[in-house]
## 1
Amino acid sequence: MKPLTFTSSLEVYDSLEELSRDVQDLMLEAFKARDTAYAPYSKFSVGAAILLENGETVIGSNQENASYPSGLCAERTAFFFAGAKHPEMEMKKVAISAKSLQRLIESPVPPCGACRQAMVEYEVKQAAPIELYFMGEAGKVARAKSVQDLLPFIFDNSCM
Ligand code: THU
């Protein structure tokens, strides 16, 4: 038997102001995207903004459905949109923000497992990390250097 050990770390910033101007701008795009969420069932809005290598920003928000599983998270909406709009363009950074109608969220809201799996596909495809910044409505912001830091021991095309 050989143990496999995974280590990953996040950086947590007290506020958005601690981050660089370009990350602040990207997060502001995520806030705007969040306002486009269609979330009448959960009343939980999420916005994602992806910075591409050409400087363009592609956004997404969660889109819910009366048939609950037919809805989609903000991150996958944004990544699939970016993949469809610029199939060969590298994705550099993604900013994500979540807001609840029930309470003020001031701690980072991490992407769900299904979104991590969907996002890591693009990281593998482009063979370069995608930096993630995620937060609630206000307050602390977490940074991961890559999607794989949030999803070690991935299932990808090399497993097939
Ligand atoms: N949601 C996202 O958009 N991203 C996540 O990573 C977690 C959850 C959405 C899905 C659903 O519309 C609502 O938040 C509540 O789960």
## 2
Amino acid sequence: MNVVVQKYGGSSVATPERIKNVAQRIKKKVDEGYKVVVVVSAMGKTTDNLIKLAKEISPRPDSRELDMLLATGEQVSAALLSMALKDLGVKAKSLNAFQVKIKTTPHHTSARIVDIDDSVIRENLKDYDVLVVTGFQGVNEHGDLTTLGRGGSDTSAVALAAKLRVPCEIYSDVDGIYTCDPRVHPRAKKLAYITYDEALELTALGAKVLHSRSVEIAKKYGIPIYCASSFTEEEGTMVVERLPEWLEEPVVTGATISHGQIKVSISFLPKDVKYITAIFEEVGKRALNVDMISLVPSNGKVFLSFTILEDHKEDLDEALKEALRDVEGWKSTYEGGFAKLSIVGVGMRTSPGVAARFFEALERAGVTPELVTTSEIKISCLVPEEKAEEALKSVIEEFEL
Ligand code: ASP
Ligand code: MG
């Protein structure tokens, strides 16, 4: 039995016409002899609108109830797509996270998939050619609905593919992964291949190509991901472990910006690592994403700074108060209006001088970075929001992206 997982994003199922178009594409795959497990996102801006609606009821909506609300979006598109398929004569059926038994961690709005009981899918594939599964949602150990974080249906799709040990195709309104955001930079180049490591860095750094957890899972289980458009027949991008031999490795594969960053500085911490541990434990409990951590000891005290996303400010405040409740004299400040600009490429491992070229490009744009972090295959820096696009343009020119 030839099985493939296909995921269709929100814009691919935004209207009844588009849903019917997606049904046609799926039918084609079935006619080629495949059984298809389809994962869908909510229609168009549904999730955004549901969040807005929740905020009209409550300024900080209860997260369990928010998940209950958000999970409805995917159920709508799964049911509609299944109807469209049935009208085309395809043996199809929709299933939600409860039915598929997608188990997640307890964290509402940012849960992680821990296991999927593939027996439900396998059983159903005996009788059906297409199973349409709701993306983005899972069920935690309390039997409550959870969601996987914005863009999380990519992760639902790859997790299903990993469990079934089949390839995964991800369709959206962009026909592949580009060197930089093609909507902002029209001369961006489409990549035929990108490695898991690069895709992981790019997505973690704010490029909206794939949900980063989906790439982690793909890498762990060696599942190739094919990213393409649901609107065209254009060749897309393969996400793989290693670039093919014949392909010349670029020094820098992609550049991206993550907006809405806050720089957090915590000063006058006692010089004892236990307080640092306590801070990151509390941060972890709340599943907050901190990045660009820098730690400077001075005069017997420690000064810690890092970045978080604007939306996480209140939760972080709570985390710090909890972690440092026994400490006196510490101070925290939050500075908003930053963006994180990053370049990524496995080619950096073997090409010296990348950092120098990166900072020269920033200098030409008249930008001085506030914080810098690097890994073997990336350089990130924190820059003022209003200078970010200009800085990115200069970087794109420098590395011919
Ligand atoms: N509908 C969800 C969102 O908008 C999940 C997804 O699209 O992947 O974030
Ligand atoms: Mg998405």
